[in-house]
């Protein structure tokens, strides 16, 4: 019987460290190919001296069976990540967009199945006798197809930004589905970006599961319902920020997100995270207000930043946009990325001071 169906306590006494996790959980089969592609993308950016940001986006799944029928999922449509990637590109960064398969992506997010569905732009019209319009499908036997965007200017600007990015080759996508794939990719991509030193930024907006089922505890086949209720005991996902800061990419500018449903927890939890892991910025967001306000928490410039040497001080900066402005198309990610670009630049400059 597998532990997934077993109601007895977990046999693992120790929580997984990052080291024991990677020593026991298998890498995804596409990892080597993904890393080769990332390496080639990074070397192109290094050659032209461009800064690179790794944007993680979307939720991770936790499969419950090896032949997976059921899984736990994490909330996130990938809006924050996809929107932010566009603003980073606009700011001149190259972007590695590491996202949950089928979650929102930069540019196409404006025309996803839920926002401006593609088919709503198309009209069928009777074919004219003479057909010269380049946009039409010329088939006199059938009605022609014409494109009618509700807001042509918007479509034009999204399309031209998308084409410019394609031409410049500054966007590279990598996909994950499970939390295991996410963790292996995060480690591998961070190590590749290590080459860029302070010119690399990490923008960790993916909603990552805190719990998972180790492979050795998973049922091979679909969990059967014959035994009544299902009791699952899951292990804690190892904290990856610590090895990121200490080993994988010590010079990188690392920004993590903290999601809470109770606003009063945002600042204390963000501070605790900075104190524990020693990275640069935690952006706190409350579930329902995340499109209108976020809080940047970082160590205050007066503190040494050396944990244990003095009690680090913290500073908070709230960014807010008006709900009316948001309804009119203003996106808080524009302000988040502006603020981060400024902070990243001073982080790069501070190496010589
Ligand atoms: C976030 O907090 C993101 O901003 C959202 C974006 C997931 C809220 P959407 O894709 O949502 O725009 O719909 N991401 C980080 C979530 C997370 O897993 N944080 C961990 C935590 O809060 C720590 S790193 O404990």
TrEMBL record:
Gene3D superfamilies: CoaB-like. Residues 51-106, 172-290 form the DNA/pantothenate metabolism flavoprotein C-terminal domain. Keywords: Ligase. GO terms for molecular function: ligase activity. It holds the Pfam family DFP. Residues 1-29 are annotated as: Disordered. The keyword Ligase applies. Belongs to the PPC synthetase family. This is Phosphopantothenate-cysteine ligase. It comes from Sanghuangporus baumii.
């Amino acid at each position: 019987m597998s532990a997934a169906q077993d109601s007895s306590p977990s046999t693992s006494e120790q929580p997984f460290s990052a080291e024991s996790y990677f020593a026991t959980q298998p890498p995804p089969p596409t990892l080597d190919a993904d890393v080769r592609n990332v390496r080639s993308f990074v070397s192109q950016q290094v050659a032209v001296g461009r800064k690179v940001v790794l944007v993680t986006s979307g939720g991770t799944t936790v499969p419950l069976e090896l032949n997976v029928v059921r899984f736990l999922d994490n909330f996130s449509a990938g809006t924050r990540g996809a929107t932010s990637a566009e603003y980073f590109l606009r700011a001149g960064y190259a972007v590695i967009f590491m996202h949950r398969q089928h979650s929102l992506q930069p540019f196409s997010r404006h025309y996803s199945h839920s926002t401006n569905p593609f088919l709503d732009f198309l009209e069928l019209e009777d074919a004219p006798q003479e057909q010269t319009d380049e946009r039409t499908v010329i088939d006199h036997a059938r009605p022609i197809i014409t494109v009618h965007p509700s807001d042509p200017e918007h479509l034009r600007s999204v399309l031209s930004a998308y084409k410019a990015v394609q031409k410049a080759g500054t966007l590279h996508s990598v996909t994950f589905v499970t939390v295991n794939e996410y963790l292996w990719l995060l480690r591998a991509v961070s190590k590749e970006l290590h080459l860029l030193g302070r010119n690399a930024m990490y923008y960790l907006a993916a909603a990552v599961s805190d719990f998972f089922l180790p492979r050795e505890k998973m049922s091979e086949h679909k969990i059967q319902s014959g035994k009544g209720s299902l009791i699952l005991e899951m292990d804690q996902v190892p904290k990856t920020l610590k090895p990121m800061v200490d080993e994988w990419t010590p010079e990188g500018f690392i920004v993590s997100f903290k999601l809470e449903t109770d606003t009063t927890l945002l600042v204390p939890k963000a501070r605790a995270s900075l104190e524990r892991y020693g990275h640069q910025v935690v952006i706190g967001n409350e579930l329902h207000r995340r499109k209108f306000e976020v809080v940047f928490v970082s160590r205050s410039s007066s503190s040494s930043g050396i944990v244990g040497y003095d009690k680090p001080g913290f500073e908070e900066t709230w960014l807010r946009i008006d709900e009316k402005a948001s309804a009119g198309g203003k996106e808080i990610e524009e302000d988040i990325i502006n603020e981060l670009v400024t902070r990243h630049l001073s982080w790069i400059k501070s190496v010589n001071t």
